[in-house]
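Example record

Each entry pairs one chain with its bound ligand, 4-methylsulfanyl-2-ureido-butyric acid.
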Amino acid sequence: MSRTVTIAAAQLGPIRRAENRASVVKRLIALMREARSMGADVVAYPEAALTAFFPHWWTEDEAEVDAWFEREMPGADTLPLFDEARRLGIGFHLGYCELDQSAGRKRRFNSAVLVGSDGAIIGKYRKIHLPGHAEHRPETPFQNLEKRYFEVGDLGFGAWRAYGGVAGMMICNDWRWPEAYRVLGLQGVEMVFCGYNTPVHHPAAPDHDRLGQFHNELCMQSGAYQNSTWVIGVAKAGVEEGVDMIGGSAIIAPTGEIVARCSSNDDELIVARCDLDLGRSYRETTFDFAKHRRVEHYRMIVERTGAIEPADEAPVRRKQGAR
Ligand code: CDT
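Structure tokens for the complex follow.
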């Protein structure tokens, strides 16, 4: 049986603050049709793909905040996307902002779903690493208020049988954390879908600005290689409501090589034929976790060196004779 899946990454250009869901969903459907015409089995969209990335601005108006969130998935606005997927026979990955009332109170998450070619939801992920800050910083050119508008995801890093293999999800900032990839790698993922909204500028550390695209690829390529998995990174790109965001959506092989990359900051599709067995050859050799991982030694090293303490205290400890 073929272990090849054709995956499309559907990068989005900016979404205007005033653009409604119906208009965005039309864009998503156009990309979905293009993906299908290019032979894709699944198409992946960015983080928070249905709206402008509102955590970049402050508001105290509860109703205004809620308006950025989906109360159901699919809902009236997103149903056409699910219907079109079913009609075309294509799966998809969609990032969106989720308002959940099931725990008897309002909870807001930065979420993503995997949807099968029958239009049924296969799995859901809620973003765990929320970057930025919760307090108002009007002095900065834009803000990063994910800690204000979202709760930390409570579903863990899951893996699902999907698209002929094993698929996992993470969302934007998660990919800077090797442990996010590793938790997925330990579950044997073969495809990791990750949408992102990454600003070019870092108001808190402007010297990082020139490295945005490099860090993006560094994280995706090392995550793919070290966990023997395909990684599909999908951006919201371009200048959105005054915030310049990196593009560079890419499909990365388990070799760590980028096999397709967007070249614009607009709506753009890239497609790759992904051999899922390519991951197996790494999983069974260099990254055979059962054979080569040394978990007990990692613990021992931390205990002996005190590596969990701030680095600048380490010389002091050594002088005191600590091992
Ligand atoms: N959306 C998101 O997670 N963005 C963050 C911005 C952090 S600024 C260092 C990211 O990691 O790309």
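The chain is about 25% helix and 25% strand.
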